[in-house]
Design brief:
Blueprint: H1 2-15, E1 20-23, E2 26-29, H2 32-55, E3 58-60, E4 67-68, H3 72-77, E5 80-81, E6 84-88, E7 95-102
Antiparallel strand pairs: 1-2, 3-4, 3-7, 5-6, 6-7
The structure holds zinc ion.
Zinc ion (ZN) binds at residues 61, 63-64, 66, 89, 91-92, 94.
Length: 105
């Protein structure tokens, strides 16, 4: 599921990239990678920065009631409902919707 989502996200980003650039009255015909590569770099930077910020939060497992902070890549890619996230508890190894306990700024 995650790989399929990632594949179609990258595919749609590449197919939606325009090769015609209009800057004022000047028209540029640029190759697709001139737009796609900076876009990918920006999206990847947002993914990393968002994950690092989200990984500073503490979440409570509904099964064992223990708190934990997820790794940044797991926090960035997890399904969320408001501020609660579907995470795998490192203590009991069960995946569930974990409520946020504390927001560390
Ligand atoms: Zn747990």
């Amino acid at each position: 599921m995650k790989r399929t989502t990632l594949f179609f996200t990258i595919l749609s980003a590449l197919t939606l990239t325009s090769c015609d650039v209009h800057f004022g009255n000047i028209h540029y015909d640029v190759p697709w990678w001139v737009i796609a590569i900076p876009t990918g770099i920006i999206l990847f930077a947002v993914y990393i920065i968002g994950g690092i910020i989200l990984s500073k939060n503490e979440y409570v497992c509904p099964h064992c009631n223990k708190t934990f902070s997820p790794k940044w890549w797991k926090a960035a890619y997890s399904i969320h409902l408001n501020s609660d996230r579907v995470l795998k508890c490192p203590h009991c190894k069960k995946r569930s919707l974990c409520k946020i306990k504390r927001v560390i700024k």
